[in-house]
Amino acid sequence: CFSFCTGLLALLSTSFLCYLSARSWFYEIPYNSAFVFIFASLYCALKAKNSLRKRLCFGLSGLFFSLSGGCRPIALISILLLLPILAGTLKDVPEKRQKLILSANFLSPAFCVAMFLAVWNGLRFGSPFDFGNAYQLTVSDIRFNSVSNLAVALDGSFQYFFRLPSVNGIFPFFKGTSGSFADLSHSFYSKPVVGLISYPVFWWSGAMPFVYKHRKGSKEFFALLLCGTLAGLIAIYSVSASGGVFERYTLDFKWIFP
Questions:
Q1: Which residues pair with 244 in a beta bridge?
Q2: Which residues have C-beta within 8 Å of that of residue 118, sequence separation ≥ 6?
Q3: Is the pTM of this model over 0.70?
Q4: Spatial CA neighbour of 196 closest among 160, 224, 172
Q5: The pLDDT of residue 214
Q6: Residue 175 bridge partners (DSSP)
Q7: Residue 20, C-beta contacts closer than 8 angstroms, at least 6 positions apart
Q8: pLDDT tens digits for range 158-182
Q9: In 3D, which of 89, 7, 106, 78 has the Cα closest to residue 48?
């Protein structure tokens, strides 16, 4: 119960879920939808562990996972959280044939949704991999942004993770720090932001070695912890390179670290 309550506190206070529920702008709708599908996918994957309907759970997990990518493509990074959970369940299945069937149950709906999105993007934007960037559907020109822009990505990653807040004379006496250390082009946002390291709830990550020890060296828990950290870092890098530094963009990775 204590673990559940502290985990829920970390999720609500770090991921901006309450912020999303209080807003109705079209910017936040994809985030809200992606979160619903991500958590539904994770729930079904966890449910499959002790469920007699493993095929159904695997199928729903794959369906929700692919739908999250349709709402927000970067949400597909959640596959790194799903893999150790699903692998742990498959490991407990004795028959190889059943393992293949369960894997197919996860991949089939994901493949169908991926094909639908590819056709939709192809008809609407001219390429199955174009989600609208070429037609400039946002207020920031991101057509020439790329994850290969190492200088911008590393600078943005620093802002998102280590940027300290500025002191303010008005309660609560801290605010986001504007600007960045690099001279970013006009294609990238450079807005006030506070790094993850400044969130008190994030400091709970320091207890992870003790939690791992309490779990008696659980390989599944360690794999989930490692994959979650990797997913968060990849998301930070991708957001920095493709969009820049913006408080709302932290929604793409804040939910992973708690």
A1: 189
A2: 128, 129
A3: yes
A4: 160
A5: 60
A6: 166
A7: 28, 31, 32, 35, 251
A8: 888 888 888 877 876 777 777 654 5
A9: 89
